[in-house]
């Protein structure tokens, strides 16, 4: 199971979380990555943790002031990117163009969406993975795998109908190892986490509780 | 005169440009800053050059995936930020909120706009500086100070009517020391540059030609 | 005092509200206008009521599918338009361009904003009027004139400093004649209303209570 | 073959075009519809022509100033709506929500997209039809069926893999009966037209040339 910790714009120390993730990844053989603010990618990547961008813009090199260039994120150390997170919804055409941008920069891609229909739509654009995160469960502490197991099952089925190679992650409310086990049982290949780790008093303990 | 070099999403080496800027700033006593991609802020700031963000989001700490948090930009070494560049136009309410965000993170602020009316509007929101850049002249090589001197004069007058403390920069087509001198004569306190330096074969020579 | 009733996307009968407004305007000599959905402008205007658009796009004639063309709104009978309502915030450059579009179509203009700084910014763009509506009071039933009289006073002062000819309206929570009188005393030239009339069981009675 | 004439924000007389469409539909047994500005829906529908909206917002009844409410469009006489036109690209989540809104208002739906991948994505959201319109051919006079027949064939194949019930239209550069015949041969069920009819000196003749 892939564990992607989204630091959003939280007031955490991104390097401390990254170092905790790196230790947990090494000690437990877990597949853990950290998605910090773009301005923190370099510092997080230098910690040795697998580093992701939270977003890349649907553009290539050129006159795009204020964009988040995929090549710049890769340059700073990112190896993947989230796209279309519920806090950063994109136009359909821009998800397509951001996927192209990420591919040019050799970043792995996860396209988020709300429900199985949108997951199928996202899958049709050819990302490496999709992630279903019911917005109403984000930040609630109630795991999606328990509150709405069907949405995970349906997202997996919808994705595999489009392309069995695309991985499926789920998010919202995941905070324990049991939540991850439940997600895996529903067919998910990974999970998205955020506040449960980023806001934890002890991020390493929080991550260990997950991957054990 | 303040010289802000906007690297946009250009395929330049941001650290090489920053080092050139830092040498020119030191050797010529010039006031030069570099605005790279957010993911390059840390590397650029580590070169010793004055580093600016190209944009910050109208948010504070919180659940804002994919945002450009002012605090993260500051953390990585930025001391100022552009806002509302013509390639990244913002909602009026978001310029206001991004100015608040920048102030919380102790970033200097320059709000860009197209014409004197919009410059007056931008000034009313209380930035440290405004910048007038007629979009039709961006990237043309024809300096605004020559193609449309009245827009610079009118922008200065409009700004000073709102608040004489707010500095006024101009941009578009600036590439020689004469362009800068002309801008200064029109009342500008600084200039915005981009391709003229970022795409130059020898950025240091390009900057020296400007500040001499 | 000008009374502008914004029907938003409420499930009301726009013609019934317009006819009530027209009767109240005629019988009480009141200055009342109705802002329906664009698709309802023609039917509302045919009722004889003064009809406003809720928004016009920052474009002129051309290839702009899905835009709200100022000329089409005027054609259908609108004589004015709201711009930058808190439910439809616009880019600074687009407020400027929408004002140009409205002027070409001979529509009166009211630019909404949250606070006195943004009101000054809006005024700098040269609309016929501005409207201050603290978003946190919209739909509360607590009139802005009572909850935050200073914001109205400051908005009036900020506007008059820019151009004494620009009218100032206020909105949020206005539902009684006393609220309107209080707004007038604070210097406002008009008020924006919405649910208090649009969702009233008897819109005519609701309007009469206001203008008496 | 369904022929949808998108009037965009063109300076045409929408009722004159609608009357021409209505005559051609009646005399030639053709399936022709007109998509005017929202503010013109009522006048166009009253001409007897089949009337479509150019866009509906991803909202239901409520506090949505400046939205294009599907129910208001239907009320005024629209029976269908375009969504995600290349001049009005929408967020993936908003296409989904606008489809829900259109369904509640009993409007037929056509979701536009640039390329077969995006067409498959659009189809996954369950519209009545999709339309492929390569942006680079819009307004060129070169029919997509001739310039890029594969994009039409691939769009048809991609759609039918998702759901054989979903119709496929194509657009860009269609202006003659031969273009329509070619589109039909490639598997399209309809075409989108715009300037060829809307800007024609004689819209009826332009439409007759198409449907003959």
TrEMBL record, chains A, B, C, D:
Function: Involved in the gluconeogenesis. Catalyzes stereospecifically the conversion of dihydroxyacetone phosphate (DHAP) to D-glyceraldehyde-3-phosphate (G3P).
Predominant subcellular localization, coarse grouping: cytoplasm
Enzyme class, first EC level, given as a word: isomerase
Naturally occurring in which organism (per UniProt): Halovenus aranensis
UniProt keyword annotations, A-Z: Cytoplasm, Gluconeogenesis, Glycolysis, Isomerase
Record-listed substrate binding positions: 6-8, 138, 173, 194-195
Keyword Mitochondrion (UniProt): no
GO biological process, one term: glycolytic process
GO CC field: cytoplasm
Active site, per annotation: 85 (electrophile), 133 (proton acceptor)
Keyword Isomerase appears in the UniProt entry: yes
Catalytic activity: D-glyceraldehyde 3-phosphate = dihydroxyacetone phosphate
Pathways involved: Carbohydrate biosynthesis; gluconeogenesis; Carbohydrate degradation; glycolysis; D-glyceraldehyde 3-phosphate from glycerone phosphate: step 1/1
Subunit details: Homotetramer; dimer of dimers.
Protein name: Triosephosphate isomerase
Gene responsible for this protein: tpiA
NCBIfam families found in the cross-reference section: PRK04302.1 (NF003302), tim (TIGR00419)
Location(s) in or outside the cell: Cytoplasm
EC number: 5.3.1.1
Pfam families the UniProt entry points to: TIM (PF00121)
InterPro entries: Aldolase_TIM, TIM_sf, Triosephosphate_isomerase, Triosephosphate_isomerase_arc, Triosephosphate_isomerase_AS
Protein family (similarity comment): Belongs to the triosephosphate isomerase family.
MF (Gene Ontology): triose-phosphate isomerase activity
Bilayer-crossing regions: none
């Amino acid at each position: 199971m892939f564990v992607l910790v989204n630091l959003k714009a939280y007031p955490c120390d991104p390097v401390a979380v990254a170092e905790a993730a790196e230790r947990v990844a090494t000690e437990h053989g877990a597949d853990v990555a950290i998605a910090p603010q773009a301005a923190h990618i370099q510092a997080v990547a230098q910690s040795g943790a697998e580093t992701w961008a939270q977003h890349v813009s649907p553009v290539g090199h050129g006159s795009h002031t204020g964009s988040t260039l995929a090549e710049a994120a890769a340059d700073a150390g990112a190896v993947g990117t989230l796209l279309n997170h519920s806090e950063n919804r994109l136009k359909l055409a821009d998800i397509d163009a951001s996927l192209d941008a990420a591919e040019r920069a050799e970043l792995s891609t996860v396209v988020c969406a709300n429900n199985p229909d949108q997951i199928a739509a996202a899958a049709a654009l050819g990302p490496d993975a999709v992630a279903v995160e019911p917005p109403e469960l984000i930040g609630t502490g109630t795991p999606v795998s328990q509150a709405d197991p069907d949405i995970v099952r349906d997202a997996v089925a919808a994705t595999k109908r489009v392309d069995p190679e695309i991985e499926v992650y789920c998010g919202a409310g995941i905070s324990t190892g049991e939540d991850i086990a439940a997600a895996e049982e529903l067919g998910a290949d990974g999970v998205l986490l955020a506040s449960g780790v980023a806001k934890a008093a002890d991020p390493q303990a929080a991550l260990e509780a997950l991957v054990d």
